[in-house]
Write a structure and sequence with these properties.
Length: 71
Amino acid sequence: NYTAQAIENFYALAKSHNIRAYQIATEAGLTRVTLSNWKSHRNEPTLNAFLAAQHALDRLVALKQAQKNEG
């Protein structure tokens, strides 16, 4: 299932950068429960919601990288 694999990759990227679901949810304008439901396969994300979460994660990763490079 492509969606399940995309969600697994999404969470793996977040974990590798120590980014929590609540941070992604806040940045994306989603609820933490929404992300949790995706992870537990209770719901599949809409394309817009998944893209919002992915873009939020990308911004948080870039921010962490910038902070790492400054320090």
